[in-house]
Amino acid sequence: MIQISASLLASDLACLGEKVRRADQAGVDSFHIDLMDGHYVFNLAFSPDYLAIL
Predict the structure, then answer these.
(1) N or C terminus: fewer CB in 10 A for the chain?
(2) In sequence order, what are the beta bridge partners of 7?
C-alpha cells in the first residue's frame, strides 16, 4: 500500500492553512515537519521555537 506524506516545508507558509486543507482534500495520508537542530545541518527548516507557536 502506497501512502503519501506531504512536507509542510515545501508549502507556501503565507497560506499554510489553505495549502494543508487542499492537500488533505486531495488525499494526502499525512504531513511531516522538517525539523533541523542546527547542529548537524544548518537550520533551514522549522525550528523548535517556530513549531511551538504553530
Answers:
(1) N
(2) 32
- Please give the Cα distance from 50 to 18 (Å, whole number): 19
Q: How many CB atoms lie within 10 A of CB 6?
A: 17
Each domain of the chain, given as residue ranges in start order, spans 5-53
Residue 16's nearest CA partner among 36, 3, 33, 29 is 33
Dump pLDDT digits (tens) for 5-52.
998 877 887 888 898 899 999 999 999 877 666 677 665 666 677 777
Query: What does 1-54 look like in DSSP terms, one character per residue?
Result: ----EEEGGGS-GGGHHHHHHHHHHTT--EEE--B--SSSS---SB-HHHHHH-
> Is-contact 31 8, C-beta < 8 A?
yes
